[in-house]
Amino acid sequence: MKSQIVEELVGRKQPVAVETSTVSSLIPPKAAIEKLKKAARDCRACPLWKSGTQTVFGDGSPMAQVVFVGEQPGNDEDQAGKPFVGPAGRLLNEALAEAGIDRTKVYVTNAVKHFKWVLKGKRRIHKKPNAREIAACHPWLKAELEVLKPRLLVCLGATAAQALLGKDFKVSRQRGQLTESNFAPNAMATVHPSSILRIPDAEKRRTEMKRFIIDLRKIAKVIHGLE
């Protein structure tokens, strides 16, 4: 089946062939989050299930009005089976606390549910998912958001932003700006916390952390307006 999702997300002239029937047959109708999570364990819509330890579905309050979406699980998440539990997750938790956002009241997930990696020495290093893999996972992300019905959607990084806000969305230019999405009445994008961790210079890293917290404080104001 040729996927329009890929064409819309990455703007290629020719759509990439993606087998989505496997996902469609797995997604139970009108399912709660836990049922979706269980069904996703058997997903074989793209080759990443072969290298990932397990499907890493979203996690958090099923009543959350705010959903944070990242790119994909990392090594720690792949082993734990939960999103944002590694270094990037700890940085996110620190920034959320600094911004006044209660981590226990939000839901976190990823655009891609399996860990894509390359081996460097003894370490499994993150590798960016391609258009086919993003498209293959999109039905799961869509199903999550349709169940949660968030009032605020926060995209962490370019992969999530382009998957949910359109292929032309540029985080570098539009971060921190309130916009709309097909999945929520309010949406905003900022950087992925892992991008901060990758900055080698300590001073620049501190500066980017401050910018990240400023974005999250804007999100906190929107949250307070929803309460």
Describe this structure in words.
There is one protein chain. The protein has one domain: Uracil-DNA glycosylase-like domain (Uracil-DNA Glycosylase, subunit E), CATH 3.40.470.10. 46% of the residues lie in helices and 15% in strands. The protein has helices at residues 4-10, 21-26, 33-40, 48-51, 75-80, 87-99, 131-148, 158-165, 171-174, 193-197, 202-226; strands spanning 59-60, 66-70, 107-110, 117-120, 123-126, 152-156, 179-181, 184-190. The chain has a 6-stranded mixed β-sheet with strand order 1-3-2-6-8-7, with helices on both faces. A two-stranded antiparallel ribbon has the order 4-5. A hairpin with a 2-residue loop joins strand 7 and strand 8 (184-190). Helix 1 (4-10) packs across helix 7. The longest helix has 25 residues, at 202-226. Mean pLDDT is 89; it is low at 1-18.
CATH superfamily: Uracil-DNA glycosylase-like domain
Number of structurally distinct domains: 1
Largest sheet: 6 strands, mixed
Q: Total strand count, please?
A: 8
**Average pLDDT reading:** 89
Helix vs. strand class: alpha/beta
Summarize the helix and strand pattern as letters.
HHHHEEHHEEEHEHHEEHH
Question: Runs with pLDDT <50, length 5+?
Answer: 1-18
